[in-house]
Amino acid sequence: MAQAALRRLVALGAGLVFGLGLVISDMVDPARVRAFLDLFGAWDPTLIFVMGGAMAVSFAGWRVAEARQKSLLGGALPAPPGTELDSRLLSGAALLGIGWGLVGICPGPALVALSASDAPGFLVFFVAMLAGMAFWTHVLARQTAGAAPSAPG
User: Fold this and answer.
1) Could you count the other beta carbons within 10 Å of the beta carbon of residue 132?
2) Is a pLDDT exceeding 80 seen at residue 143?
3) Which of 1, 98, 149, 151 could form a disulfide with 141 if both were Cys (CB 3.0 to 4.6 A apart)?
4) Cα–Cα nearest to 136, from 146, 147, 150
5) What ranges in the chain are assigned the alpha helix state H?
6) Is the separation of the CB atoms in 113 and 119 below 8 Å?
7) What pLDDT sits at residue 153?
8) Span 87-137, pLDDT tens digits
9) Which DSSP symbol is given to 137?
10) How far apart are alpha carbons 93 and 53 in whole angstroms?
11) What is the pTM of this model?
12) Is the dihedral of CA 90, 93, 99, 100 positive or negative?
């Protein structure tokens, strides 16, 4: 029982650090993201540094995990990410990219912005995001024979 509580506490801490990083890097501001995507205007490269930092930490974490049989808290380690480019991955990435480009925010920053902002646009985005997840889980996943329901990409 104490082990499960410790895992939840560590997960909460990781989520708080992630959210704090999004706030500090200003990735909860859709204008910042749209400025990154504006290659021929007032381009803002900040997002490259945020992504690069995240990928460096992820890369180091996977390298450490490769040498282990169990997590530090005794739980099973997740399987390494797949390397196959299939239609589900590509279509999910395209949908995320289109939505990200149109709105300027993606799921993680939306959740942080929802809790830290009074802007109604974040609530609309969050409800639409939940509706899309429910649609995928309950409608599209049934059409995918033999595949477990999971978000595309």
Assistant:
1) 15
2) no
3) 149
4) 150
5) 2-24, 30-37, 46-66, 87-103, 107-116, 120-135, 141-143
6) yes
7) 46
8) 878 888 888 888 888 878 888 888 887 777 667 777 888 888 888 888 878
9) I
10) 20
11) 0.66
12) negative
Residue 151 above 70 pLDDT? no
* Residue found by looking up tokens 């239609």 in the block: 87
Decide: 129 and 114 in contact? Cβ < 8 Å. Answer: no
One-letter identity of residue 38? D
Alpha-carbon distance of 31 to 105, in angstroms, equals 9
The pair of structure tokens assigned to 46 is 């900040």
In the block, which residue shows the tokens 């289109």?
A: 98
- The single-letter code of the amino acid at 6 is L
Residue 142 has pLDDT above 50, yes or no: yes
29-73 pLDDT tens trace: 888 888 888 889 889 998 899 889 989 998 998 888 888 888 877
What does the chain come to in residues?
A: 153
CB contact at 8 A, 24 and 109: no
Angle at 112 between CA 151 and CA 58, to 5 degrees: 60
Instruction: Return the number of other C-beta atoms located less than 10 Å from residue 33's C-beta.
Output: 22
Helix, strand or coil, per DSSP, at residue 14: helix
